[in-house]
Design brief:
The protein is mostly helical and 429 residues long. It has helices at residues 2-35, 40-68, 70-88, 94-122, 128-148, 159-170, 172-177, 193-199, 201-227, 232-259, 262-284, 297-311, 314-324, 331-360, 364-386, 406-409.
């Protein structure tokens, strides 16, 4: 463990700053959009820009890294992300913010890919699991801390935007000062969508709908909380609970899926998320009744924690289930394919969820989550009736962060490392 931290401390520290800024920025923009009286549909459209950019960046970043190297790519896109957040504070318009979110999405997927491919280079078969665990703790932990920075100053002011920019810029310092040689970039080929669907229909379909769920959940939670008259501190608490409870849930649910039919765990988890989404609606309707009749927000927090507990391990479950149906040498390719499908779904999530909220009010947020989780559950039940359980000794549950890129999927200790490129491309620093 000490050796891992010694060899990768600069990267871990840099990513910690990046995720702190990311967690802060997501909540900040959501709250500010409500304060600027953006319509819910406009807000959803604006927030979806991040995932459009993420999708664009995912397809272009391998060539960029191969040409100019890891350090230059990290520095360039961290700088771009730092500049973009400042423009938000002076150009306040939904369409302009949409374009800025596209640039942020491109920047973040580039940063993730650099970090995760670099970690792969520092890892071996013996320590990949440990490196992935540390990486997850840093991602979720610092993102949670960033959400509390919303209390630094009113979102109406320009100071929070400056702070996001400062934290993002701070990520450059440890990366640019590292003495470690950056790795060569290994390009990962994904399975075709037809091959992926044939191997695991549940994996492919669930990945699409889960992308829709996750993008809406992380981008519009602060919008929902603001529209429900949560204080800034309460918004920080609820967004923090989302990150932490989801991270904690990965391991117990993952263990269950290694013992029992993984499809049953997926179905139970997704229906559990649906149930807790409905319960969150029921208690939220009682929170603003007159004294003596009102329900404490504590119950809302409890049901939301349970929702996150059931919902956030889903991608890791979907990935593990897909691996159940393929050979070990295709694990990385299948993971890259699932991420592609996830990205397709994610682009539509914030906009569709905002339409739900526009039609039925703020609780349309949880109705949306209920509906799409239920789709996954019913499709899972159907698949269990047409295909028998597959036993694959090479496949097991491995906790993965929601932001994982194809390069990061190789950190899964059950995968076979992909081959080095025939011609090593050395980066000039």
């Amino acid at each position: 463990m000490n050796k891992i931290l010694k060899n990768s401390w600069a990267l871990f520290l840099g990513m910690g700053f990046i995720m702190m800024a990311y967690g802060f920025q997501g909540s900040l923009l959501g709250v500010r959009a409500v304060q600027e009286e953006f319509s819910l549909t406009s807000t959803g459209f604006m927030m979806s820009g991040y995932f459009v950019g993420y999708f664009i960046g995912a397809s272009t970043i391998p060539n960029i890294i191969s040409r100019v190297g890891h350090i230059r790519v990290f520095a360039a896109f961290a700088s771009l992300s730092s500049l973009v957040i400042l423009v938000h504070s002076v150009a306040i318009h939904p369409f302009i913010w949409f374009l800025l979110r596209v640039l942020t999405g491109i920047s973040m997927v580039c940063i993730y890919t650099v970090a995760e491919s670099w970690l792969n280079d520092r890892s071996s078969n013996k320590n990949r699991g440990s490196i992935l665990s540390i990486y997850m703790v840093i991602l979720y932990g610092t993102m949670g801390i960033g959400m509390f920075l919303l209390n630094f100053s009113s979102p109406k002011n320009f100071e929070p935007f400056i702070l996001v920019s400062v934290i993002t810029s701070a990520a450059l310092i440890p990366i640019l000062l590292t003495k470690k040689k950056p790795p060569t970039f290994k390009k990962i080929k994904a399975m075709t969508l037809i091959e992926l669907y044939d191997a695991s229909p549940l994996g492919a379909v669930s990945s699409f709908f889960y992308g829709t769920i996750q993008s809406a959940l992380f981008t519009l939670l602060a919008v929902y909380a603001t529209s429900m008259n949560f204080t800034i501190l309460e918004i920080s608490v609820v967004t923090f609970l989302l990150a932490v409870s989801g991270a904690v849930a990965q391991f117990p649910i993952g263990k269950l899926s290694d013992v029992y039919d993984r499809r049953k765990v997926i179905v139970i988890s997704t229906f559990g998320a649906s149930i807790f989404a409905i319960l969150a609606i029921l208690v939220s309707r009682q929170m603003y009744l007159p004294d003596g009749l009102a329900t404490s927000k504590t119950w809302f927090y409890i049901f939301f924690i349970l929702f996150s507990f059931c919902s956030l391990p889903m991608f890791s479950l979907i990935l593990a289930h897909t691996n159940d149906n393929i050979s070990k040498d295709k694990f990385v390719a299948a993971g890259a394919g699932l991420q592609f499908i996830f990205g397709l779904g994610a682009m539509s999530g914030p906009f569709l969820c905002s339409v739900f909220m526009d039609l039925v009010g703020s609780n349309g947020f949880f109705i949306f989550l209920f509906f799409f989780h239920a789709i996954i559950g019913f499709f899972g039940i159907y698949r269990m009736t047409v295909r028998k359980t597959v036993e694959n000794p090479d496949s097991q549950f491995v906790a993965m962060p929601q932001t994982i890129t194809p390069a990061g999927i190789e950190l899964n200790p059950t995968t076979e490392p992909i081959e080095e490129p025939e011609k090593n491309i050395e980066s000039k620093i």
